[in-house]
């Protein structure tokens, strides 16, 4: 699918400001549903959405750059806990919103029925770029999780489109050009596919319905879990294994580069 086709689809929706999204649909406590879809299916999915859907626009741009750094213990405790379906699994990351040049240290805790609680504090962009936690961030993380000894384990970049769904349904994000690299600088790229995440109060919205009609079902593989499990073959995959085989059957490895590509 050409970028021009997607651009035309997005232009059919009115713009919404970041301030309005934060006011009406920030949803730090929410139900997340994740889908890995073929980019070629995006026009059909967007065409079926309510015309009152709006797209986040910042400085006349509707695609925005994100840079994330995920932290874990040297023994990968947070990753392994996610494999074991711990009720209160934890992800800890830095996120740099490149286009607004703002950055946060974030904690995401998983709860029952795919619910998610996210808390965050501001941090310096330089900390994100360096992949280091400041003393203040380390103290805040320990106070909220009890976890110590974290180091940067995974770097993740992508371009995001954010949709504000009508009638208070929440929001959805479409992530394109997704790439990862680890401490050994091995790289991973998502080819010809996008990741859609819906963020709602109850896991139900129009875009969830449209995706279901298009044959897509929620997939529990997060960017953190997918990146770690694919880049480090020594770690167990458990519940991620089936999803990785289904969505990324042509995962190939060379000395310093891996690729995920569609069939």
From TrEMBL:
InterPro entries: CYTH-like_dom_sf, VTC_domain, VTC_sf. Coiled coil: none annotated. Residues 29-231 form the VTC domain. One of its GO terms (biological process) is polyphosphate biosynthetic process. Pfam families: VTC. This is VTC domain-containing protein. It comes from Corynebacterium mustelae.
